[in-house]
Every structure is written in structure tokens, then in C-alpha cells.
Amino acid sequence: MIKITSASNQLIKDVCLLKKASERKKQGLFLVDGFREINLASEAGAEIVKLLYCPEYIGDNNKRTNLGLLKDEQLFELSKNVFEKICFKENPDGFLAIIKIKEKEIGELKLKDDALVVVLEGVEKPGNLGAIIRTAAAVGVTAIIVNESQTDIYNPNVIRASEGQVFSQNIIIVSQKETVNWLKDNKIMSFGAATTGAKKYTECDYSGRIAIILGSESDGLSDFWLKSANKLIKIPMKGKIDSLNVSVSAAIILFEAVKQREK
Q1: What ranges in 28-92 are assigned the alpha helix state H?
Q2: pLDDT tens-digit profile of 193-244?
Q3: Fold of 2-100
Q4: Per-residue 3-state assignment (H helix, E strand, C coil) for 107-139
């Protein structure tokens, strides 16, 4: 175990760099702040490179993480002022981990006859992406496919909004064209959510292998998906509202699909 009491320590500088998406991509590493989230990452098989902790925040709480056998050189004890420099949470619990990114390939997915897939195109806000991942975990989706990503799935706000479920889900980042070909090859019926949809979301048959496709907060689905989706569906609106937040739309449609499939 190594003690760090100076914010000018090189490791602390490196951790601060990982707050930037470009550095996360360059180094193949990301940060997880919080005991619960680190535990979820570990249970999902994530490789923890370093664990940083602050006794002053942990206090007498005898927490134990399911971290496997970390070596002494992977453990870093930080003073309170140093830990506050690197943590994200307003009320930190004294744990922060550096974890290795392990990207999943779309060809690795194993599909059952009733596979339920979510395709997200150009979702911009980390909070929305995290909320959709959390909902997807709640309904038991097979995979979440991300096209034209506008936010890093390892953004701390995504991890927080997903309640750490970003680690438990099959999240694949691929192009639109690859996604369409994969859907066709695996005989997956796709439903694109759009205000111009011909059918109400409650009028569709969601049995078998299906994919729900949702677009960006500002523009919705692109012309590519408006033309490529097998069916376009809509959520009826009343009053002067013409659309919902994308994470709300995802929850409404996914739970309708689950309700039908459970019957």
C-alpha cells in the first residue's frame, strides 16, 4: 500500500487527466467513484488497475469490496485534501478505482429467440444515456447498441445515472450500417421511435426478437434510421407537447414490450 499526501503526485495528475473523454479513450482507462459502483464493476468482471481510498471518509465503516486479490502496489491511501481533488461525488464515500476499458464486439452477443435489443443513435446527454441503461437493466434487455455516440459511456455521469448498471449490460459501440446488417442477419424486427410513426407504440406486436431504436434528444432519429427501421412507432401526445425526454420514451416503450411478452 502506498500513501499519497500531495496533490502534485504524478498518479493524482494522471487520475485528473482521466476526467477527460479523450484521455479515457487514449489510455484505455476510466474512473469509478464510490464503493457500490466499484463493487458492481468488480462483480461484472472489470479489471481494477488501481484502488484509491481515503480513511478519513471511510472512517470506522468496515466496508469490504469484492475486488479479488489486489496487490499492495495497486492500493493507494490518500489524504482527505488529495482525495477531494480527484473524486466526483458531492458526498464521497472514500473509494475511487481506475479500471481498464474492455470493449465488447457485436459478434460476441448470444441471442435467444426472444432477444430484446435497444439501439441508441446520437444520444447526447450522459444523464439520459445512464437512465436508459438503468431502465434496460430493469427490463432485462439482451444488449444496448450505441450508434454515433455523442457521449462516452464511461463518463462519470453515465455511471452515476445508470446506478452502476453500465457494468452489467452488454453495451456495443458500432456504426449504423453494421447495426442494420447485424439486425438483418439475426432476424431482429426493428421499431424506430419517431413523432412521425404510423402506429402507436401500444398497437405493435413485440414478440420474438426485437430492437427498439431511439434517437437524439434534439433531432430524434436520423433519416438513416427512419428509412432502415422495419416499423416506425410513436407515443401519442396531448396538449402542446410533441415529444418526451428520450430516457422517458425508452422506459415507456420497453415496459410495454415487456408487458406484452410476459403475456
Answers
A1: 35-43, 55-58, 80-86
A2: 999 999 999 999 999 999 999 999 888 999 999 999 999 999 999 888 888 8
A3: 60s Ribosomal Protein L30; Chain: A; (3.30.1330)
A4: HHCCCCCCCEEEEEECCCCHHHHHHHHHHHHHH
Give the 3-state secondary structure of residue 255: helix
Q: What type of residue sits at position 107?
A: G
Question: In terms of Cα–Cα distance, which of 181, 203, 188 is closest to 257?
Answer: 203
H helix and E strand count, the chain: 10, 12
Q: Which residues of the chain have pLDDT under 70?
A: 60-69
Alpha-carbon distances, residue 12 vs 8, 15, 51, 65, 98 (angstroms): 7, 5, 12, 22, 11
Task: Give the three-state DSSP class for 158.
Answer: helix
CATH superfamily of 106-262: SPOUT methyltransferase, trefoil knot domain (3.40.1280.10)
Nearest to 207 by CA among 188, 225, 221: 188
Q: How far apart are CA 120 and CA 230, in angstroms?
A: 16
| Element spanning 20, H or E | none
Q: What is the pLDDT of residue 133?
A: 97
Identify which of 222, 170, 157, 153 has the alpha carbon closest to the alpha carbon of residue 193.
222
